Model the fold of this input.
Amino acid sequence: MSALPLNPALFHLDKDHLWVMHCSEGPVPRAGMRVARAFMQKELRPWEVRWEEDFQGIPAALRAEAAALLGGRPEDISLSPTTSSALVTVAQGFPWEPGDEVLAPLGEFPSNAWPWLALRSRGVRFREVPLWEGHRAGVEAWASEPPRAESDPETRLIEAIGPRTRILALSWVRFQDGLKLDLQRLGVACKDRGVHLVVDGIQAAGTVPANLEGLSAFATGGHKGLLSPQGMGFLWTDEHFRQSLSPSGTWLSVEDATDFSRPSTDFDRAWLADGRALEPGGPNLLQASTLLESLRLINGARVPAIAAHVALLQARLLDALDDTGWRSDVERLRLLLQGGRLGSILALHHSGKGPEVLDRLLKAGYRQGVFASVREGYLRVAFHGYHTEADGDRVAAWLRGSTAIVDDPWSRSDRARHDHTGILQSH
Ligand SMILES: Cc1ncc(COP(=O)(O)O)c(C=O)c1O
Done:
């Protein structure tokens, strides 16, 4: 394997913690700690916080770096604390008519459900679409069939678009099964039908190369593949789509907001046309500086190189699991991987093993210093640009060594009782 896209030495990794769960929370690079400390040093002496360099400069640099990550324009970026807050901004600002509809895949992470469900009192319907045969979610999540290479989730979504559908809202990479949707195909179909494609991109940002063609909005938090602390992310909006949204209405949403030669109480001002109109107010400079540092690192490494590296590690891990209790799922995942259907989450389906088995497996991993996660019937292993082949081999050794747990007959006979239990929390 050639040089790693991200040097592991940039992170505070140790041999007792092999972290393969940036799909929950990514490790922050050491440089993030340095910039946070430097910024707090300034805050101790507020006369050192500079108006242009910090108050305006940090958010502007972050918007530019976020735009570079997505291949977009800085003026289309709005800083937003989380994926949820970004989607809420779109949901609350959109010009709805009673009877309008938001369409979404079945089993979205709640960040991409509650903002739309909250519109019920305004007469807006939220409709979920199963993406493949046997796809289930909610209390039936553990009884779901997993996605397969021959599944065609895009066609199901496109065919489900109805006369009142205004927005199709979906995760680019799904949090539980790791399936990556074809945004360009969906974008073209949405455009043809006058529907807006709104994307929750948090499980792909930083590990999958982006293409904004055909999208109306893209939301992400910074705390997963973008390797930053929780609480700072961004929203990208297409210029024309943004003009249809209500602005946030903060003191910074208007022209000349920081020109103090003009009385701040002069409310005769135009709304800003760029992404700042959708921001939530004064920027969180501490968090913006850490996300900025992480984005510089990721853009420097180049996302296509990270994605290619992750795919190599995934293929290698699948090869190592060919003759284990996971064999029935390995071929399914291999075909998905070869078809370009996966992001950085390799999600092994429990295939009837049930929550107890997966929980014991996870705990066996913790004891060996391997930290993976379980969500809704899937054991998730998420590689990033700093993982090595040796890391992959260690994950393989854990899973191969857990054959007794996977094949435990008690667990199998007991599993029917637990088919409908919910998410197992991993930490
Ligand atoms: C697909 C998806 N969207 C959103 C989130 C959470 O995003 P935020 O906390 O930034 O709102 C998660 C977290 O697990 C997720 O997997």
Q: What stands out?
A: Residues 42-300 form a domain with the Aspartate Aminotransferase; domain 2 fold (CATH 3.40.640.10). The chain has two domains: 8-28+303-418, 42-300.
